[in-house]
């Protein structure tokens, strides 16, 4: 299938390069088709790879917002949009367990008394089939680490 796609791209590029070279007076007429074929063969795989890269980038994009408690509580399936700010700003570091629960809510999973997690929803991505979670690690009832992972 990939070979057919690259072949199709090669044919399209050939016609584009051939048309562009016919407009140019820099290359002798007999070398224009050979040059168009060579350029098409070189640029077709590059065009295919670039297209795949762009597709993955578009699929994986999601906006990142500053933490907002109301948005956190009202959109639990889109919490991943707020998680980067929570982690990078270190806003939970040094807070007690009670303060974290007051801020983020009571809908967490408790792995043990020193480790809780909030479900963030499905982060957009090409291979994203699991939800992400925000892990909060405590030591002596004080947050020491906040991280994110796929469940």
Which strand order do you get reading across the main beta sheet?
1-2-3-4
Low-confidence stretches: none
Helix-strand string: HHHHHEEEE
Q: Quick one: biggest sheet?
A: 4 strands, antiparallel
Report the count of strand segments: 4
Radius of gyration over all CA atoms, rounded: 26 Å
User: What percentage of the residues does DSSP assign to strands (E)?
Assistant: 15-25%
Helix content: 40-55%
Task: Describe this protein's structure.
The chain has a four-stranded antiparallel β-sheet, covered by helices on one side. α1 crosses α2. The chain has helices spanning 2-23, 29-60, 69-74, 80-88, 97-104, and strands spanning 109-112, 115-121, 132-139, 142-150. A hairpin with a 2-residue loop joins β1 (109-112) and β2. The mean pLDDT is 91. The protein starts with a helix and ends with a strand. With 151 residues, it is of the alpha+beta class.
Task: Spell out the key features of this protein.
151 residues, 5 helices, 4 strands, 19% strand, rod-shaped
Topology:
Blueprint: H1 2-23, H2 29-60, H3 69-74, H4 80-88, H5 97-104, E1 109-112, E2 115-121, E3 132-139, E4 142-150
Summed up:
By secondary structure, the chain is α+β, with helices and mostly antiparallel strands.
């Amino acid at each position: 299938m990939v070979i057919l796609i690259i072949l199709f791209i090669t044919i399209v590029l050939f016609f584009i390069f051939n048309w562009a070279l016919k407009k140019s007076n820099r290359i002798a007429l007999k070398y224009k088709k050979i040059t168009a074929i060579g350029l098409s063969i070189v640029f077709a795989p590059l065009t295919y790879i670039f297209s795949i890269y762009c597709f993955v980038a578009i699929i994986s994009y999601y906006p990142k917002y500053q933490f907002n408690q109301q948005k956190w509580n009202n959109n639990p399936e889109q919490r991943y949009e707020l998680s980067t700010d929570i982690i990078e700003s270190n806003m939970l570091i040094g807070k007690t367990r009670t303060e974290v629960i007051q801020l983020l809510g009571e809908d967490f999973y408790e792995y043990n008394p020193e480790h809780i997690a909030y479900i963030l929803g499905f982060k957009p991505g090409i291979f994203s089939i699991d939800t992400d979670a925000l892990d909060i690690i405590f030591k002596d009832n004080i947050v020491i680490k906040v991280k994110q992972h796929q469940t």
